[in-house]
Amino acid sequence: MAATETVRLPAHRDTVAAKILRAVGKLPLQIFLAVVALLWLVPTIGLFITSILPASQIASAGWWKIFAHPSLATFSNYSALFHNAGLTGAMKTTAYIAVGNTLIVVVVGALAGYAFAWLEFPGRDWIFIGVIALLVVPLQMALIPMFRLYNTSHIGGTVLSVILFHAAFGLPFAIFLLRNFFIGIPKDILESARIDGASEFWIFLRLILPLGLPAIASLAIFQFLWTWNDLIVSLTFNVTPITVWIFGQLRQFSSSIDIIAPASFISLVIPLVIFFSFQRYFVQGLLAGSVK
Amino acid sequence: MSGASITAEPPPKAAPPETGGEGRSRYRTGALFLLPAFILLGVWLVYPTIYTIVRSFFGQAGYLGTWVGIDNYRTLFTTSTLTTAIKNSAIWVAVVPAFVTAFGLLFAVLTERIRWSVAFKTVIFLPMAISAFATGVTWRIMYQQNPDQGAVNALGRTVSDAFTSPGVLSNGQPSTTALQPHGGGLVLKTPLHPGGVALLGLTGIAPEDMPQGSQQAAKPAGRSGAIDGVVWRDFKPGGGKPGVVEQGELGLPGVTVELKDSSGKAVQSAKTDATGSFEFTGLSPGTYNAGIGAATFAKPFGGYSWLGSKLITPALLIAYIWIWAGFAMVVIAAGLAAMPREVLEAARTDGATEWQVFRRVTVPLLAPVLSVVFITMIINVLKVFDIVIALAPESVRSDASVLALAMWTSAFEGGGNFGVGSAIAVFLFLLVLPVLALNIRRFRRDA
Q: Is the ipTM of this complex over 0.90?
């Protein structure tokens, strides 16, 4: 008791001095973290600067040269890309896949999540365990059979084939996440709606979806980013979104760098914008997926 | 209302059996809600999983092909390209989860003490939004071998130059066979006696590499009791005669010349002046060897071959840790935020140092969160594909190969062996299967 008071008193007396002391004491930590943050930013900055340098410059010197010669910056790489039919087509494909998959996963996942949370049917919990079991199936398990199946049907090589593949592999997590969220919606709300004669579908549309919006938002962001960034699925099924398109250029890495760098940067702009706009949901989804 | 904190409530009981019609309609509604999910999961997940397991026991091509038993699995463990993939995946599992968790813990704990923690976390977390494929491209630019192009090697050169400066004449070559390579440097073949003259002519030095302030070289006369000599650029516009000091040929200043006695022991060393001349004085009679030390010819830092076959896996690991450290940090930071502050304060009041608090209180309390991060990372690492195919040049892809990549190349590239591809997929599945048990246990505990 006496000891704690003798420790505390001086701190109270000269707060300003103590604050300065504490700030100085933290200086090494501040510097360390600032250096770490800088190191973490360098690769992305390097990609961006490489993307705005003319091809002749990239071949002869590192991108950091731009700090000495800012006039080297040019957007000609980008304007050339936007006139490249291959790339603009690939961007459209990426957008179709990401949006289509997100819609399907959210709708189908929410329907199933609601059923597992609030509808009564035999073997419900066992089926749910089965869905959880599917969470760990690596998508490599389905590449060969679906490749065969797609090749023998009309769906092969279409955007839809990729969307449906992604949707199936996104569903177990979607159902898991939404079921756990929906089950926390107060029972009274649903019960009184049922007593009033509302159909299950009305309840789903008018109560569950609005109340479940935070979880649905997290899910949608994750699904969107996951499919936007995918390479392996589209590559296997011969569909060309932006990642596969860039992959096709990689063989001549050095000579095509003025295409590869800006295209890669374009491919990560949308995810970055989404990340910064919906950071809260992004982190929430991450935590729901891992800390549960 | 956060999903994570809510415990499962028993769902509403089904309608009593008397109102059978309504009960059956409830079931029908349930089936209707589940139908789309079941179709998708059935066709794209359950059927393929069963097919792939069966397929892994059959031959290369066809819907099933011929029955080969466990031959595909035997191939997996005996073919060198595939065992390389297994070995690399093992390295990934051994390295990445530990580093990612450690970085995440370090950053999460340290950012609690600074004002700009939100900015810091955003920066570290940023790579999570970027595709693994784009990350591969990004780091491929970072890893270019030429230090003038790759940032990693440029940093390496800065560090390397701080400790060992490149030699004055890194490209110098002897102009005649009188000079022989010796231990990285050059030495005069013919031994010298006091009074002799050493002519050390070099070529292969570009004009722009000539040391500043060099002047016309001159052949020294020679003095008794001393060895005189000259180091010069044995070349002038038009060529000149090798081994002869001519008008228009410049001396090489700042070169360290070493003199060794007949036993090979260094007795003296001298630096050349602006005309390239040097002198060793006060020598006792005997034979000596004059030469230029290795340091003079030290090559400048040429950059590590990060994208070569030896370093490609470490290069990939660094890039992958760069992506995922942010994930670990955010999850662990959430765990820290949920930790009872009183416990930490109590430990501090009891006189524990910050390190003791961290080691004895924070880490044990965080253990469940840390293990979740660790396990998540093991699964992620086993399935890694995009970053390898984007970062590793095609020539070293087989050196960088991992299980998921080996599965893909086996099945869809070259020969297209569906049997082996299926076997690798099943092997991958078996490796992540223990996590399934964990997931189910967690669900049953919660429910």
A: no
SS3 readout for chain B: CCHHHCCCCCCCCCCCHHHHHHHHHHHHHHHHHHHHHHHHHHHHHHHHHHHHHHHCCECCCCCCCCECCCHHHHHHHHCHHHHHHHHHHHHHHHHHHHHHHHHHHHHHHHHCCCCCHHHHHHHHHHHHHCCHHHHHHHHHHHCCCCCCCCHHHHHHHHHHHHHCCCCCCCCCEECCCCEEEECCEEEECCCECCCCEEEEEEECCCHHHCCCCCCECCCCCCCCCCEEEEEEECCECCECCCCCCCCCCEECCCCEEEEEECCCCEEEEEECCCCCEEEECCCCCCCEEEEECHHHHCCCCCCCCCCCCCCHHHHHHHHHHHHHHHHHHHHHHHHHHCCCHHHHHHHHHCCCCHHHHHHHHHHHHHHHHHHHHHHHHHHHHHCCCHHHHHHCCHHHHHHHCCHHHHHHHHHHCCCCCHHHHHHHHHHHHHHHHHHHHHHHHHHHHHC
Q: Specify the range with the lowest mean pLDDT, choosing from A2-16, A118-132, B170-184, B228-242.
A: A2-16
pTM of structure: 0.78
Instruction: Dump pLDDT digits (tens) for B100-149.
Output: 999 999 999 999 888 888 899 989 988 888 888 888 888 988 888 777 77
Determine, for residues B4 and A288 on separate chains, whether the beta-carbon distance falls below 8 Å.
yes
pLDDT band at B18 (very low <50, low <70, confident <90, very high): very low
Q: Which B residues 325-384 touch A at CB under 8 Å?
A: 327, 330-331, 334-335, 349, 369, 372-373, 376, 379, 382-383
User: Distance from A13 to chain B by nearest Cα, in Å?
Assistant: 20
Question: Which of B1, B45, B350 should we substitute to test contact with A (largest number of A Cβ atoms within 10 Å)?
Answer: B45
